[in-house]
């Protein structure tokens, strides 16, 4: 089961469509991954279209297996970002991790926060493939833009995580959002 979500337009921003990634999105992925700032924060780097197609196949397998819900953030028909809910981080299955990025040319326009709010409401509410009580959002301590997005979308800073080189070379923030019937545990 794959899902498509929609974010309504605002007075200053067009509507967004959050849909599963498609093979024809490979070129947009490669272009986005050329951005040095994005490469600084991501674990995965897509150097060419074959890498991008493999990555898209991996995202689609996550949907098929019901363990990772990966959305292209599409504005005016063009992918401009990515957001995913990844299960399997909690043995009890009650929590998942959410992550996102936006392309360099669209940063600072509220796209990440609008997409995160939409996906958070869906993941903690209406979807029934992976019932969740909690979403975790992790980012590097010095990724101030991600921290602002998390706070804007009511993710509470829960803890500062130690660095884990080489994959996570610096400390991180763990933000948490609970469903409306749960309270965050720190």
UniProtKB/TrEMBL annotation:
Keyword field: Acyltransferase, Transferase
Domain named N-acetyltransferase: residues: 16-183
Transmembrane segments: none
Stored Pfam families: Acetyltransf_3
SUPFAM superfamilies: Acyl-CoA N-acyltransferases (Nat)
UniProt-recorded Gene Ontology molecular function terms: acyltransferase activity
Enzyme class: transferase
Domain of life: Bacteria
EC number: 2.3.-.-
UniProt keyword annotation of Acyltransferase present: yes
Annotated signal peptide: none
Protein name per UniProt: GNAT family N-acetyltransferase
Higher taxonomy: Bacteria, Bacillati, Actinomycetota, Actinomycetes, Streptosporangiales
């Amino acid at each position: 089961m794959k899902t498509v979500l929609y974010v309504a337009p605002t007075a200053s921003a067009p509507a967004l469509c959050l849909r599963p990634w498609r093979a024809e999105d490979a070129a947009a992925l490669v272009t986005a991954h050329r951005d040095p700032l994005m490469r600084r924060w991501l674990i995965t780097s897509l150097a060419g279209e074959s890498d991008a197609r493999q990555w898209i196949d991996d995202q689609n397998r996550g949907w098929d297996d019901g363990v990772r819900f990966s959305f292209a953030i599409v504005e005016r028909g063009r992918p401009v970002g990515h957001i995913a809910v990844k299960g399997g981080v909690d043995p009890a299955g009650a929590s998942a991790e959410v992550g996102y990025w936006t392309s360099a040319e669209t940063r600072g326009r509220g796209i990440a926060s609008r997409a995160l709010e939409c996906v958070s409401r869906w993941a903690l509410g209406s979807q029934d493939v992976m019932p969740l009580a909690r979403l975790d959002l992790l980012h590097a301590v010095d990724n101030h833009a991600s921290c602002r997005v998390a706070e804007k979308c009511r993710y509470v800073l829960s803890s500062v995580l130690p660095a884990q080189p080489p994959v996570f070379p610096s400390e991180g923030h763990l933000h948490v959002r609970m469903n409306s019937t749960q309270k965050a545990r720190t």
